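Let's do one together. I've listed all components of the complex below, 489 residues spread over two lines.
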Amino acid sequence: MTGIPYGIYEGFLILLSVLSLLVLVVILTAIKKLGISKEMVTAIAKGGIQLFAIALVLNFLFTYDAWYILIWALLGMMVIIGGYTSAKRATDMPDAYSITTPSILTGGALVLIVLAITRAMPLYPQFIIPLAGMTFGNSMRICSICMERLISEVKQNKGEIETALSLGADSKMAVKNHADTSIRASLIPTLDNLKTLGIIFIPGAMAGLLMGGTDPILAAQYQIIVYLMIVGGGTISTIMATHLAKRKIFNEKEQLREWVYS
Amino acid sequence: MKNILEISGLKKSLEGTPVLKSVDLDVRLGEIMGLLGPSGSGKSTLLRCLNRIIEADSGNISYKGKDIKDYPPSELRKEVVLVPQESVMFSGTVFDNVSYGPSIDGYVDKKHILTCIEDAGLPSDFKDREAEKLSGGEKRRVALARALALKPEVLLLDEPTSGVDPKRKEKVEKSILNFSKKRDLTVLWVTHDVEQAKRISTKIANLRDGRIFRIYDSVDFHGGEAF
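Okay, and this is what the predicted structure of the assembly comes out as:
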């Protein structure tokens, strides 16, 4: 057996019947008065619409001869939205967008180039789009955690940073420990996931490949590639973000900027 | 005796509130000057401007006859060293903390570090103690030793005995006076304690409402007029 054993129309009917699960949990949450029934329905509806929208775009791209032109726009959109979303976690830092966007772009792009060169990512839209989505999306998530942690580290430890500056350290040295801590903290959830791979859960890419009929060994190989891509993109993005953030934390006179004291 | 620090018309506002309104002050080479004033008068802000941890809004500060803006900030801070009121310890031992400054330039003279620890009034076997676990008074001494390790020209001390047990206060004062004399240091010592200011300094500058109200010779100073 290869792939999902029914067509689109039958699929819609099956989806509708599985929606009975939603009805069940909405009833349960209403009985328990958890106050999240409405949010649950809205979230599933919103997520569903977004997925169908991207499915229509993908359907178009997969059949469009000049897909290699349109794909740049899609990748650009991923980076821009990722940069904005990640910057929202760093509201205290002015103009954080100018840090998160190039960091996500660099981390994601370098990883995708390696995947393309090694032939891990065949240059077809069916591979490029999901892999780019996973790379930029995870770089965004890891970059967000890193920026949030960095801001909190700097604000909480401004006394220590000032002490280091007072003893002649430059801004790079003064913030080094806190930047390193932020990078580590942002990568820990992904590394924890890696440690439990295959034991507690079968991750998305492998699950998808298995359902599509791929040999389990090949699916496992590809899942490892996906994780290498996530860790690689995330690490490069956070190293770049913490490097760029120094200009937002310190001024050219090696002094902490005003926002750190606010 | 020539001036090592010359401050004129110094102004600084914090969060829109003027803290230093116009400070004029000369500090002579090798002098220990007490900077006395009530809380909120701008004493700490003045020290922070002097080693450029924060930037003054206007006015001039010259160090050794040269505008402090003409020095690279990290070089200035190694010569005009601030010991802030809060003694923040870096993780690691007392030795790691005291050698922090010299290690930036890549050379740590172990003998010099141990001398600094002893001069600050701590036994040399404290070098292996974990700095973050020390008492408040011990941390203050480590902070002083850490500043001395840089071989500074000027020490900016922000209430170096605040929080120290009153019985030990004079001991800390003596340590500071001794190492300052031994090293020909110029010291600007912030305090709000009139008696301490008289004990430790040759001159006392009275800072009030963001301005130097008056400069006294310590022997002529009675204290009542300072607040």
